[in-house]
Amino acid sequence: MAASKVGRGLLSGWGLRIWVFLLFALFWQVSATYMKNMLIPTFTETIGGFIQLVFVSGRIWEPLYISNQALVLGYFLSVVVAIPLGLAAGRARLIDRILNPYIGVFLAIPVAPLIPMVIIALGLGLASRVAIVFLFAFIFITVNTRAGVRNVDPWLIEMAKSFGANERQIWRRIVIPGAVPAIFVGLRTGLGRAISGMVIVELLLVASGLGRLILEFAGRLQADFVFATVLVVIVEALLLLSAMRLIEQRVAPWAHDISVE
Amino acid sequence: MAKAGVEVGKMRPISVPGALWRPLRGTWMEALALVGGVALWEMLGWLLAMPWLPPFSKVMEALVQFVQSGVILANVVVSLQGLAIGFSISLVVGLLVGALMGRYRRVEQALHIYVHALFISPSMIFAPIFFAIFGLSDAVRIAVIVVYSLFVIIINTTTAIRTVDPALVEMACSFGANERQIFVRILLPASLPLVFAGIRLGMGRAVRGMINGEMFIAMVGLGALAQRYGSQFEASKAFAIAMVVLIIALVCNWIVQTVENSLTQWVD
Amino acid sequence: MIQVRGLSKEFAGRDGTDTGIVALDSLDFEVRDNEFLTVIGPSGCGKTTLLRIVAGLIPYDRGEVSINGTPVTGPGPDRAVVFQNFALMPWADVLTNVAFGLEIRDMPKAECEATAMRLVKLVGLEGFERRLPKELSGGMQQRVGLARALAVNPRILLMDEPFGSLDEQTRRLLQEQLLRIWERERKTVIFITHSMEEAVLLGDRVMLMTPRPGRVKEIINVPLKRPRGHDTEKSATFVEIKEYLWQNLRSMQVA
């Protein structure tokens, strides 16, 4: 069964997708126009607002920058903490045993109700936003890293030992290369989680970035800008995650996310 | 006559759902780790005396108080109602769309890219949109739950149907089965394991959507309580609410897992 | 009687480019009624493709495939397939699996079960009718596959390396069982195999195929007396024919 990458004709592949999009845009446009709700912009108004915010007035860039500070710092912090933790858990049975009961809990526990506690501890500034993004992401990176290490063929390690390799050599030549695909999956999942964390921070705390912007636009009944800001965030998320996916594809096209098994 | 006893049948007992046999030493280690962690939490809570880190015992106290006084019962019910409605919508729509996408290549080609994009987008970002459309009503938090859980169900259902062993389909063809018979007798049962994987994942996400959506509106359910206790610096109670949500998540997961196990006993 | 004249089949290359694979090229042969024809040849000679075409599972490009004069256009009640990897429904028990072909044809449930039970006994799986496939060994699973095929009482049995994924001992037992069952009701059989012993032991005639593209090299008569058993393997004729097959197959591999 040949998969057509470029649609030939109006009814296959990309043709279909464009049709779906057009239908959606049309439905939106018509129902928004009909509803005449101040808070619901039409499709064209939203696109117009998007272009305004991003290209014309550039109003979106500073709040975007502010919000993303939390994302970048929080994500890198979680990577720095989670990967060594995952590696240790994967390799050392003792550490794994100690961490195991907590992994399930941390995967399932909702971070949102704990946000007020983080605020109390760290105030309303960047620190708490970074901490929240960290909390959203780190366990997912840990779990996937650990799985990556554990899934390295134990026979390979036996083989290396039989040739006299020491711990450091085993790590460098067998374990790390073997675990890299899973680690990258974890990095991608963690990024998605970090972005979610950033969004939730913005919406629940109404911090100094995009959240405040949305509130401002809503207050001024500038619905087109509200929706446009939402669109900007979605676009950013898609771009970041696609980029991550591309990197991951080059490293290991076959890996899958262990935290969602 | 043919000898039935010549071969030793490969017979395995049907695995008991959720029963895990671990070496005793391992279990002790993990139990110890849990107890150790709790003890650490308790100690740090008292020692540091930070308003944001109440000792474990205080959190437990708050939790017990909740249960005894029934103060949060109304909120839990409201939250669970929203969860039930939202998840049901995701389930019905998700299974249907997933089945269509799994069965008809055209449908999958058309929709896959959007389903995937919506799946990886941060679900909460749609909250302002729902707020604009529905105002301050139940619909907002239900819509958030749907957005959190729908797409993973669609994706898993689609994959489930697409990855049915083609040999089974060919076998059915060879006996003259028509399209409908193949769908009902082969595709549906064969896709159950993966479909359930999607339902389980969707369930977890739905619970997260429940609490996040409620905290955004902050007027009803457990989310409202979380916001209130948070703003009043009542840390023990806030932690206790998180625990309640955690328990809800675990119970829901257990329910889905049990149903799944009973329906997929045949999996190797 | 199965008649194949000038049968050709091509598989398109990937992405619809023109570098297709010619799986079968102008096959010409006949299978007489009640005959057991074994088909042997190296990988890539199109034996499985041929079987699937006769079963009506895939279309063919040129030529003619007919059964007693009627061209093959799809699956039919006169043919049943036994698959190499068993193709059992893992969620259904033995009885349900055996009854599958009957249930598809809307036979009343009681009748399906009765017929299926009869066949379960025939293949020696009495007592196992409520077991799931995962609880059975490979040999037992294939017996279920055989029972399922026989249950619909086809005139023609199409077997695609049915014992290929079994260990040798199990294979020999199933060969004996198949021979015994076939002696009772002599269906027309096309049996694909990789094993020369199997081809000579089971077949009235052995069709030797060559690969790339798939063609019929020769059809060899096997004049060994029936009923056959594993003692037949000691006979001079058996050894001779087997050796002949081996010489041919070996030269094909080198080429």
Identify the overall geometry of chain C.
Answer: globular
Q: Identify the quaternary structure here.
A: heterotrimer
Largest sheet of chain A: none
Alpha-carbon distance between the two ends of chain A: 29 Å
Portion of residues in beta strands of chain A equals under 5%
CATH superfamily of the largest domain in chain A: MetI-like
Largest interface: A-B, 53 and 58 residues
What top-tier CATH class of the largest domain in chain A fits best? Mainly Alpha
Number of helices of chain C: 7
Quickly give the structural class of chain A. mainly alpha
Beta strand count of chain C: 10
Name the helix and strand elements of chain C from N-terminus to C-terminus, one letter apiece. Answer: EEEHEEEHHHEHEHEEH
User: What percent of residues of chain C adopt helix (DSSP H or I)?
Assistant: 25-40%
Structural class of chain C: alpha/beta
Mean of all residue-level pLDDT scores of chain C: 91
Count of distinct structural domains of chain A: 2
Describe this structure in words.
- The complex is a heterotrimer of chains A (261), B (268) and C (255).
- With 261 residues, chain A is mainly α.
- Chain A folds into two domains: 18-54, no CATH class; 61-260, MetI-like fold (Orthogonal Bundle), CATH 1.10.3720.
- The longest helix of chain A has 39 residues, at 167-205.
- The radius of gyration of chain A is 23 Å and the shape is globular.
- Chain A has helices at 14-35, 43-56, 61-91, 93-108, 115-122, 126-150, 154-162, 167-205, 210-219, 223-251.
- In chain A, helix 2 (43-56) crosses helix 10, helix 3 runs antiparallel to helix 8 and helix 8 (167-205) packs antiparallel against helix 10.
- Chain B has ten helices and no strands.
- With 268 residues, chain B is an all-alpha fold.
- Chain C is globular.
- Chain C has helices at residues 47-55, 94-104, 109-122, 138-151, 168-184, 196-202, 236-254; strands spanning 2-11, 21-31, 36-40, 62-67, 70-71, 79-82, 156-160, 188-193, 205-210, 215-221.
- Chain B binds chain C through residues 1-4, 6-12, 165, 167-168, 170-177, 181, 185-186, 189-190, 192, 264-268, and chain C through 52, 55-57, 74-77, 79-81, 83, 85, 87, 89-92, 100-101, 104-105, 122-128, 131-137, 139-140, 152, 170, 173, 177, 180.
What is this structure's SSE topology?
The complex is a heterotrimer of chains A (261), B (268) and C (255).
Chain A: H1 14-35, H2 43-56, H3 61-91, H4 93-108, H5 115-122, H6 126-150, H7 154-162, H8 167-205, H9 210-219, H10 223-251
Chain B: H1 24-48, H2 56-69, H3 73-103, H4 105-120, H5 127-134, H6 138-162, H7 166-174, H8 179-217, H9 221-231, H10 235-263
Chain C: E1 2-11, E2 21-31, E3 36-40, H1 47-55, E4 62-67, E5 70-71, E6 79-82, H2 94-104, H3 109-122, H4 138-151, E7 156-160, H5 168-184, E8 188-193, H6 196-202, E9 205-210, E10 215-221, H7 236-254
Parallel strand pairs in C: 3-8, 3-9, 6-7, 7-8
Antiparallel strand pairs in C: 1-2, 1-4, 4-5, 9-10
Helix pairs in contact in C: 2-3, 2-4, 3-4, 6-7
